[in-house]
Amino acid sequence: MFRLETIELLAGPTLAITVDGGHVPLTAGARLGLPITETRLPGVLARWHELWPKIAQLAARATGDDVMHGARVIPQFGGARKVMCAGANYYKHLAEMNVTFDKTPNKPPFFFLKPPNALVGPGRTVPVDPAIAKLDWEVELAVIIGRGGRDLAVAHALDHVAGYTVAVDVTARDRLFNPESIFKFDFFAGKGQDGFCPTAAGMLPAAFLRDPQDTRLQLAVNGVTKQDGRTSDMIYSVAELISWASRLTTLEPGDVLLTGSPHGVGAARGEFLHAGDVLTVALDGLGAFEVELFARQVAP
Question: What average pLDDT does range 41-65 have in this prediction?
Answer without folding.
Answer: 94
